[in-house]
Design a protein that fits this description.
- The chain has about 280 residues and is an alpha/beta fold.
- It folds into two domains: about 230 residues, Alpha-Beta Barrel (TIM Barrel); about 40 residues, no CATH class.
- It is about 45% helix and about 15% strand.
- The protein is built from twelve helices and eight strands.
- β4, α6 and β5 form a beta-alpha-beta unit.
- α2 crosses α4.
- The structure holds 3-methyl-2-oxobutanoic acid.
Length: about 280
């Protein structure tokens, strides 16, 4: 079973893998493929619940999906996102919500976005491992003015490096870097003692994460530059749905092989009184 120790041991030696999942079966498949870690991202608001962004996601949503993922993950290390407004208001609320997430889902760690140093200190002190998240932080989409590469400009890059060091100091055991230029991600990865988890932050990070619907092509929505489609599940699924509709309409499905049969005498007995 992958633990927090694997992140420490593999740092600078072996690249690690993480994918998002939001349900039992996907988690089981990801786990069976040997992916090291599963993130129950608040991206579930967009890819599972159809919201325009992650802001509407609640702690209850995260717990509902987190529980299902934990049931499917036998080996992978499961991280659950803390949703918008579950940690920003106060340290006390942050610890209470992180505790609920871990207790009720059985996950191994939580992730939170931004410079909430006191919250990270308090949650780790409570014995809950924390992943930080810097660069593009989708919960701040309104203040960033959209989903854009972060840390490109020299002052912003300098601040990003300083912020990563502060999160490490606060106790984060890993930091997600989203949409960050390669040179900065590489520098941060070498500078930190803890792991970096990259998404749109080059192959220099210690671990990579992608949203599973993006990387399997389960959606035909336009993808960000950093996404690679490793399959085309959208086309496969549309093909299956269309064939199903055609076969039902022309009665080639279900055929005999999909049908339960019954001996004539039992059938005659069953219907005799109702003829
Ligand atoms: O919510 C999410 O899926 C994430 C990843 C994009 C890192 O935070």
């Amino acid at each position: 079973m992958v633990t927090i120790n694997n992140f420490k041991e593999n740092k600078g030696k072996k690249k690690m893998t993480m994918l998002t999942a939001y349900d039992y079966l996907t988690a089981k498949n990801i786990d069976e493929a040997g992916i090291d870690s599963i993130l129950v991202g608040d991206s579930l608001g967009m890819v599972m619940l159809g919201y325009p962004d992650t802001l509407s996601v609640t702690v209850d949503d995260m717990i509902h999906h987190g529980k299902a993922v934990v049931r499917g993950a036998k080996n992978a290390f499961v991280v659950v996102d803390m949703p918008f407004m579950s940690y920003q208001v106060s340290v006390e609320e942050a610890v209470r919500n992180a505790g609920r997430i871990v207790k009720e889902t059985g996950c191994q760690a939580v992730k939170l976005e931004g410079m909430y140093v006191d919250q990270i200190k308090a949650i780790t002190t409570a014995g809950i491992p924390v992943v930080g998240h810097l660069g593009l932080t989708p919960q701040s989409v309104n203040s960033m003015g959209g989903y854009k590469v972060q840390g490109k400009e020299k002052e912003a890059a300098k601040k990003l490096i300083a912020d990563c060091l502060k999160l490490e100091e606060a106790g984060a055991f890993a930091i997600t870097l989203e949409c960050v230029p390669r040179r900065i991600a590489e520098f941060i990865t070498k500078k930190l003692h803890v792991s970096t988890i990259g998404i749109g932050a080059s192959n220099e990070c210690d671990c990579q994460v992608l949203v599973w619907q993006d990387m399997t092509g389960y959606t035909n929505q336009p993808a960000a530059k950093f996404v690679k489609r490793f399959a085309n599940l959208y086309e496969e699924e549309i093909k299956a749905f269309t064939e199903y509709k055609n076969e039902v309409e022309n009665m080639t499905y279900p055929d005999k092989s999909h049908t339960y049969m019954m001996p004539d005498e039992d059938f005659e007995y069953a219907i005799k009184e109702y003829k």
